[in-house]
Amino acid sequence: VFYNSWEAETAEGTTIGMNPSIMFGDTVEFAIRLPLYMTEFEGADLNVYHYGADVSLTINMSDYFAMGVHGAYTRDHIEEADFSDDTGYINGGPYVSMLIPMGEASLTLGGAFEYGMPDDDVEDGDETKVVIGGASLAMPLGESLGVNVYGMYYFHTDSELSDYNFFDAGAELAMMMGETWAVQVGGRTVIGLDHLDSFEAYLGSEWSF
Questions:
Q1: d(Cα 60, Cα 43) in Å, to the nearest integer?
Q2: Region 46-74: what's the mean pLDDT?
């Protein structure tokens, strides 16, 4: 679950939500994520709900290298409006990651290409093509505790959208509660967007079975 406080040029508000996910497989991993968010605009009697599904297929080539592809379909619903008027969006693309051991710590590097478009009435300028690069550094803090610091850069290939290139940076603390249960708590922020300030706090849990 997460809580995000944001302020844009013409509006401000909060977004709360969750991303329940389930994964199957080992060498070949199939995952399903079901995002569900609610955005409340401050000073306006308006709530927007975001819902959908994201599926991914990852091939773990070795203990250190993985590649895969994902696709998502999401919709935005304005409270009290008809569901048939919801705005839909399709996006997805390939991704790769590489794990680099560094003693007790580990560095993960990754990259992805993301293509997106509305599900109806696509016009010039509606499509987005984004190249994403990221890195995370995980360090143990004892037998059952660890910290992860990460950052990602989102680059729009369309030069007209260069003002929307940004960094997403954050850190999280993870605790193993047993052999099959882990809990994470963290925060993240957006850097590099002149028209948006955002901070998100989140709490996550993971079970293996």
A1: 48
A2: 96
Residue ranges with strand state E in 19-176 = 21-24, 28-33, 36-41, 47-60, 65-78, 87-102, 105-118, 128-140, 145-156, 166-176
- Closest by alpha carbon to 118, among 110, 127, 109? 127
Residue 188, pLDDT > 70, answer yes
Q: Are 95 and 111 in contact (CB under 8 A)?
A: yes
**Which residue has tokens 């809990």?**
183
pTM for the model? 0.91
Nearest Cα to Cα of residue 48 among 61, 59, 30, 36: 36
pLDDT for the residue 126: 78
Placement of tokens 């478009």 in the chain: 117
Question: 3-15, pLDDT tens digit by residue?
Answer: 999 999 889 999 9
Q: With 80 as the cut, is the pLDDT of residue 61 above it?
A: yes
pLDDT at 153: 98
CB 24 within 8 A of CB 30: yes
Contact 125, 98 (CB under 8 A): no
The candidate with the shortest Cα–Cα distance to 207, out of 177, 171, 174, is 177
Residue 75 sits at the vertex; the CA angle it makes with 37 and 43, to the nearest 5 degrees, is 50
